[in-house]
Amino acid sequence: MTTHGMRAIGARDLGIPERLTDSFEGLRTAVVNGAPLAYREQGEGDPVVFVHGSASDLRTWEQQLPAIGASYRAIAYSRRYARPNQDIEPHADDQMLPHVQDLTAFLHVLGAEPAHLVGHSWGAFICLLTAVQYPQLVRSLVLGEPPVLTLLTSVPPRPSELLRLLVRRPRTALAILGFGVKAHAPAQKAFRHGDGEVALSRMSQGMLGRDTWERLSDERKQQARENLNALRAQVLGAGFPPLRDDDVRGVAAPTLLVSGERSPAYPLRLIDRLEQLLPHAEHVVIAGASHLMHEENAAEFNQAILGFLADHPSREVAEAEA
């Protein structure tokens, strides 16, 4: 074990099946809040930390690390319970706030604070909550379609909340209702009946769109399956933590909101609300992509990040260039 609890690991050290070892060789691990979290790092300079979403792990960022690592210290880690880390216990809940604590501790262990945080979906929500609770740790935010449902309703939504939302924001209410009826509720039912494949399909179609899910490579679908237990815990668990309008209005970090041109209505309506509330927000739409925009059109996604980071350098870099 080296300084700060970090060491190099091989996939076999973590009990990864033989067929998966190529994806995880050469990783390092940081012990964070008692759990070893695998990560990969490339480049030097201001730290840019990538936080993945549900049914995913650090492999989702494989097209970002070389591009961002050419100019920055790019770090992608697998969150607690994501491969190749230890799996979640059966019937356990996977709540979001412990992941916020993991992220803050991870930044400290790696000496990567403050950092530019790049998050996707569930990971983007984690990044936003980190900026709300620990603003001193965040230089900037890049948020890819975070599911900030609790800005608008409780989870699950109460009928009275949906009725009020229908009056005030009808398109948003219909998008939330549609996702619940077509994706979340069927996924819950399937998980309770032990049919993880059906649950994964329904949730993925709800977030990506049916065509995008069906076009995903077998390798990418397999990555989702390997992280299915954590998704089950999220879908059947306590849901998202509360988030108030004033919490978001108070985020001082410059923020780039990223959406996919072909994403379903549900994530798009939520990102619209964030754009209204965040005081220092920009919004970019990735052409030809859905919810997995950083994988589907990596070149445009990477270009958007690099342009945003160049416009918001650290104080040290800005002073050196002045």
Work out the count of structural domains. Answer: 1
* Mean of pLDDT: 91
- End-to-end Cα distance: 41 Å
Please give the number of β-strands: 9
* CATH structural fold name: Rossmann fold
Please give the radius of gyration in angstroms.
19 Å
Can you name the CATH architecture? 3-Layer(aba) Sandwich
CATH superfamily: Alpha/Beta hydrolase fold, catalytic domain
Helical proportion, percent range = 40-55%
Widest sheet: strand order? 1-2-3-5-4-6-7-8-9
Overall shape: globular
Tell me the structural class.
alpha/beta
Order of helices and strands: EHEEEHEHEHEHHHHHHHEHEHHH
Describe the main β-sheet briefly: 9 strands, mixed
Number of helices: 15
Question: What is the percentage of strand-forming residues?
Answer: 15-25%
Quick structural overview:
The chain is α/β, with parallel strands linked by helices.
Which helices and strands appear, and what pairs or packs with what?
Elements: E1 6-8, H1 21-24, E2 28-32, E3 35-42, E4 47-51, H2 65-69, E5 73-77, H3 97-109, E6 115-120, H4 122-133, E7 138-144, H5 159-168, H6 170-192, H7 196-208, H8 210-215, H9 218-226, H10 228-236, H11 245-249, E8 255-260, H12 265-277, E9 281-286, H13 293-296, H14 298-311, H15 315-321
Parallel strand pairs: 4-5, 4-6, 6-7, 7-8, 8-9
Antiparallel strand pairs: 1-2, 2-3, 3-5
Helix pairs in contact: 3-4, 5-6, 6-7, 6-12
